[in-house]
Amino acid sequence: MSEAELIRAVVARAGHDGWTPAVLRQALEDRGEAPELLSNHFPRGVLGAIEAWMGLVDQEMAVAAAEEDLAALRTPARIRRLIELRLQAMEPDRDAMRRAAAVLALPWNMAAGLRCTSASASAIWYAAGDESADFSWYTRRATLVGILAAVTLFWLRPNPPTLEETLSFLDRRLSELPKPAPKVA
């Protein structure tokens, strides 16, 4: 069984039963493995499983982006499209994401939540073709972390918005960003 298959089995259960060690063990059993192997697959337990899932979503987003010609788009449009691809990848598992966000929002799990969001922001910038190696590397990712967190929370509202409503919310967030100063020759 591949790691991706195991993560998908966990996500399928977590959407209904939440992110718990019991769910992780049951997913292992569902895939024909002994639940005692839990620490081999997820040494950090539930948080490790959530982080692995977010990494898988980021990989799926990057693969979907590679199949498109994003180079033809300006950078803001690339970022918007990549966030859209990421939301589309998570759409079937919105309840699992809602439950993961609840786990990551706990004070003792906030560092893991920040790691997940930061890794996703970085994956989005890399998929958009960012090759910066200066201070802008940090500012671009920090800005996107805030936007990505806001968009994800909007998308997870109790009365779920459509993808179009979520993208409209994203457009408003992107329009509020300060425009870079023109370069002086």
UniProtKB/TrEMBL annotation:
Listed InterPro entries: COQ9_C, Ubiq_biosynth_COQ9
Segments forming domain COQ9 C-terminal: 111-176
Name this protein carries in UniProt: COQ9 family protein
